[in-house]
Design a protein that fits this description.
Strand order of the largest sheet: 4-3-1-2-9-10
CATH class of the largest domain: Alpha Beta
Oligomer: single chain
Helix content: 40-55%
CATH topology of the largest domain: Rossmann fold
Radius of gyration: 18 Å
Largest sheet: 6 strands, parallel
CATH architecture of the largest domain: 3-Layer(aba) Sandwich
Structural class: alpha/beta
Number of helices: 11
Length: 265
């Protein structure tokens, strides 16, 4: 099983930021990525529908012989991870647990800001996980619905993006947050602009890099690390193909995505 590929899925292509982080840490692993772009976003769907879609995504990846699966989507992790682990007999990881653990890695952290899509904030998954692991935390959770479309327009340094970030984050900064958890896989692309105006003492935690670190640790623990010395390969499958999705895939990976295949679920 060590030479089998890793599977990743998301409702769109934002989860490729998790793939990018994984490729950096695990350069010899082959990866199969599924983006359910025909049904994006999952955040506007009911929890039951999200679980149904996520199970279909897992079956697609299992058909490609993967040894482990990463849910590279905060909404799907929040609503489907326990059910998927119960139904399928292979390691399945989500992005929420690693992000929470990284947020709490500093024992002095007392006030945590969370920004995410409406679906993730409404699920209270991060709020519950943080509160269960450390009592006395003060949490400030903010849905930031404008950020994903701004990122997908490549307006990372546009005044509109900075204005939206100030609107969402200034109240948290005024309340003295110690850490800001970026609870959407699109948001790592905002790190440079966030660092340009947030106070230095606010620690930024993104769910993409923390998930990749957790994946590496789990593969090592399970003795599933690929022992090949060859560079890993990446297959991208999308349920709907368009020039926009190909452009976004390039942006999230920070390199050409190669041939993108059409997936049928």
């Amino acid at each position: 099983m060590r030479s089998a590929p890793l599977g990743f899925f998301d409702s769109g292509v934002g989860g490729l930021t998790v793939v990018r982080a994984a490729q950096h840490l695990l350069p010899h692993e082959d990866i199969v990525y599924l983006g359910d772009t025909a049904r994006v976003p999952y955040g506007s769907k009911s929890p039951e529908t999200i679980r149904e879609f996520a199970a279909q995504d897992v079956r697609f990846l299992m058909d490609h012989g993967v040894k482990a699966i990463v849910i590279a989507c905060n909404t799907a992790t929040a609503h489907a991870l326990p059910a998927l682990r119960e139904e399928f007999d292979l390691p399945i990881l989500g992005v929420i647990g690693p992000g929470v653990e990284a947020t709490l890695a500093d024992p002095d952290t007392e006030r945590v800001g969370i920004i995410a899509t409406r679906g993730t904030i409404r699920s209270h998954a991060y709020q519950h996980a943080l509160a269960q692991r450390r009592t006395g935390l003060i949490l400030h959770a903010q849905a930031a619905p404008l950020l994903v479309p701004l990122i997908e327009e490549d307006w990372l340094e546009h005044p509109a993006t900075e204005a939206a970030l100030h609107t969402y984050l200034d109240p948290m900064v005024d309340k003295g947050i110690d850490a800001l958890l970026l609870a959407c896989t699109h948001y790592p692309l905002l790190m440079p602009v966030l660092r340009s105006f947030l106070p230095d003492e606010i620690r930024l935690v993104d769910s993409a890099s923390t998930c990749a670190i957790h994946l590496s640790e789990e593969l090592s623990r399970l003795d599933l690390l690929n022992d090949s010395t060859d560079p890993g390969t990446l297959q991208i499958h999308l349920t709907d193909l368009s020039e926009q999705f190909e452009m976004l895939a390039r942006r999230f990976l920070n390199h050409p995505p190669g041939k993108i295949r059409r997936a049928t679920l």
